[in-house]
C-alpha cells in the first residue's frame, strides 16, 4: 500500500492551538453566501390515478451557495469550482415557490475531520 500526502498543510487540525501556523494567511470570505432555501417541490407522476392523489404541500430544503437571485429564479450551487471554472450541481428554483431563504452564518470554529489510512 502506498500513502500519498494530500496538501492540507494550510488547515489546522482540531488538536492544534487556535493561533495561525507560521506563514499561514487568512482566507478571504466566500464570494457566494451559503443559504438554506425551503421551497414547494414540483413533481412528475406517471401513475396518478385520481386528481386527489397528489402531494399538495411537499416542502423541500436545499443548502448551497447562492450564485444567482433574479426575479424568476434562485440558483443554488452545491460546489464552487476554483480558478473561476464555475459551479457544480446547480439547482434553479422558481421564486414563486420559495417559502424562505435563510443565510447561514459562518460564525463559530470550523472543523476538519481526518481519517488515517490503515
- Work out the helicity level: under 10%
Number of strands: 5
Radius of gyration: 21 Å
Query: How does the major sheet shape up?
Result: 5 strands, antiparallel
User: Widest sheet: strand order?
Assistant: 4-3-2-1-5
Mean pLDDT: 76
- Measured between the Cα atoms of the first and last residue, the distance is 9 Å
Could you name the ranges where pLDDT drops below 50 across 5 or more consecutive residues?
A: 8-16
Strand proportion: 25-35%
Reading the helices and strands in chain order gives EEEEE
Coarse morphology: elongated
What's the number of helices? 0
Structural class: mainly beta
Short description:
The protein is mostly beta strands and 118 residues long. Helices cover 0% and strands 34% of the residues.
What does this structure look like?
- The protein has no helices and five strands.
- The chain is mainly beta and 118 residues long.
- The chain has a domain at 34-103.
- Strand 3 (73-80) and strand 4 form a beta hairpin.
- It is elongated and about 50 Å long.
Question: What are the main properties of this structure?
Answer:
mainly beta; 0% helix; 118 residues; elongated; 5-stranded antiparallel beta sheet; single chain
Amino acid at each position: 500500500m502506498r500513502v500519498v500526502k494530500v496538501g492540507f498543510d494550510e488547515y489546522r487540525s482540531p488538536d492544534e492551538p487556535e493561533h495561525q501556523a507560521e506563514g499561514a494567511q487568512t482566507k478571504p470570505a466566500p464570494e457566494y453566501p451559503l443559504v438554506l432555501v425551503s421551497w414547494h417541490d414540483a413533481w412528475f407522476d406517471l401513475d396518478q390515478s385520481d386528481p386527489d392523489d397528489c402531494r399538495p404541500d411537499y416542502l423541500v430544503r436545499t443548502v448551497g451557495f447562492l450564485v444567482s437571485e433574479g426575479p424568476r429564479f434562485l440558483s443554488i450551487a452545491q460546489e464552487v469550482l476554483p480558478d473561476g471554472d464555475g459551479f457544480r450541481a446547480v439547482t434553479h428554483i422558481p421564486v414563486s415557490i420559495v417559502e424562505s431563504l435563510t443565510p447561514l452564518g459562518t460564525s463559530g470554529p470550523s472543523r476538519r475531520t481526518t481519517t488515517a489510512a490503515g
